[in-house]
Amino acid sequence: MKIAIVTHAVRHNDGQGRVNYEVAVAALGQGCEVTLVASQVSPALLADPRVRWVPIRIPRAWPTNLLRHQLFAIKSAAWLRKHHSEYDVLHVNGFISWVRADVNTAHFVHGGWMRSPYYPYGLTRGLHSAYQYVYTRVNARLERWAYRRSIVVAAVSQKVAAELREAGVTAQKIEVVHNGVDTRAFAQASGTRSSFGLADDAFLLLFAGDLRTPRKNLGTVLRALPRLPPHVHVVVAGSVKASPYPDEAHALGVAGRVHFLDFVENVPALMHCVDAYVFPSRYEAMSLSLLEAMAAGLPVVTARTAGGAEIIDPECGIVLDDPDDVDALAGAVGRLAGDERLRCAMGAAASRVAQRFGWERMGAQYMEIYRRVVRFKADQVGERVGSTDRCMQIEGGETE
Fold first, then answer.
1. Between vectors from CA 152 to CA 146 and to CA 158, what angle results, nearest 5°?
2. pLDDT, tens digit, 9 for 90 and up, residues 332-386
3. Contact at 8 Å (CB) between 170 and 121?
4. CA 392 and chain centroid, separation
5. Burial (0-12, 13-18, 19+ Cβ within 10 Å), 397
6. Would you say 347 and 317 are in contact if contact means Cβ atoms under 8 Å apart?
7. Which residues contact 123 (CB under 8 A, 6 or more apart)?
8. How many CB atoms sit inside 10 A of residue 126's CB?
9. Under-50 pLDDT residues of the chain
10. Residue 305 confidence (pLDDT)
């Protein structure tokens, strides 16, 4: 098979980019040729002669992601239409190109986020809020257009599958393919607290994510901290540039118990230095970091609004009904901080659950979808040819 994958980046260090990287690896492992229509591609993939990169360059001078993404969609569609005979399966990610795709992975459903009771943006709440509202609304419409026109829509969680059905995507098109995790790398990593400047005598709660958006919900974690014993600290991995949370920690009087590490390159090592993972995201499709924490053997505290909560049972973590419930969050963390036996048992159970979600499993699922799509398209061509032959016979009989 010849596979074309359209995404902004194919690389190790971000969620969607890592998923597409592993899909490409799986396709190469099955002897496929892979065309990557993307702005960035990992050099490790380009070393394989069966990989072709079609670079889509988007000048940073274009203002806002909304416009830059539209330019990417137009440029990628122009190449795909011109070269459509050079691939058997076209795999895209959400709305990313003005073409009809065969397989579309739903990593995020903007319509689902907009319908969430925790959606914070509106047209009358300031310029930034108005832009975010327009961005979400436009993407919700474009995604609906893209999903409805795809042969198969791969939802990264059951939560996303439900949101796709609400958006009008027929259930027959939807297949749940959970994201994967490098179970070996996270299970076998090691690290020391001193290498990250962390205290040995503290109970360390890790939070990892984008600190520029309120959606990830670090604020609730910080507000829960004064209700917890003084030895409970929060370790924050994520760029602090343009983030309001360092100031919020100072305002709450807990700055000495919150350790902002900025961008962390060796996340597996960091996860082996902490005691638990907290992720009460207000909206998530399927969190890679949640899977990574589980693979590292950490008990997790999350919320039902976070994609990935569906795979967590009471043996390996605590799932809150409301991501903004400060008391419930403090109570959950307090249980873990005060009971080492419970913490170790949950961590071991989390590791066992994560073992079911390796990248190889995810890649195999996508390869099976590709094969089904190829068969489906071949059957459609056969039906059209048969229909044309029958019409020609009828016309010929009438002529005679």
1. 95
2. 999 999 999 999 999 999 999 999 999 999 999 999 999 999 999 998 876 665 5
3. no
4. 50
5. exposed
6. no
7. 129, 130, 133, 134
8. 11
9. 397-400
10. 95
Q: What is the pTM of this model?
A: 0.90
Contacts of 349 (CB under 8 A, 6+ apart): 313, 315, 316
User: Strands, E, within the chain: which ranges?
Assistant: 2-6, 9-10, 33-38, 40-41, 51-55, 89-93, 103-106, 152-155, 174-176, 203-208, 232-237, 258-260, 276-279, 300-303, 317-320
CA distance 301 to 333: 7
CB 186 within 8 A of CB 311: no
The answer to whether 113 and 307 are in contact (CB under 8 A) is: no
Say how far apart CA 324 and CA 64 lie, in whole Å.
30
The angle formed by the CA atoms of residues 246, 302 and 299, to the nearest 5 degrees, is 100
Buried b (16+ CB within 10 A) or exposed e, 188-207: ebebebeebebeeebbbbbb
Sorted by sequence, the CB contacts under 8 Å of residue 351 that are 6+ apart come out as: 187, 294, 295, 296, 297
Q: HSE, CB side, 13 Å, CA atoms: give it for residue 214.
A: 12
Element containing residue 333 per DSSP (H, E): helix 326-338
Distance CA(361)–CA(348), nearest Å, equals 21
The span from the CA of 80 to the CA of 98, in Å, is: 9
| Residue 289 one-letter amino acid | S
Predicted local distance difference test score (pLDDT) of residue 62: 87
Count CA atoms closer than 13 A to 215's CA, side-chain side.
Answer: 20
Domains, the chain, with CATH or none: 2-180+369-388 (3.40.50.2000), 183-356 (3.40.50.2000)
CB crowding 271-297: b at 16 or more within 10 Å, else e = bbbbbbbbbbbbbbbbbbbbbbbbbbb
Q: Collect all residues with Cβ–Cβ distance below 8 Å to 395 and sequence separation of at least 6.
A: none
Phi, psi of 31 (to 5 degrees): 80, 15
In the numeric block, which tokens belong to residue 159?
Answer: 């939560």
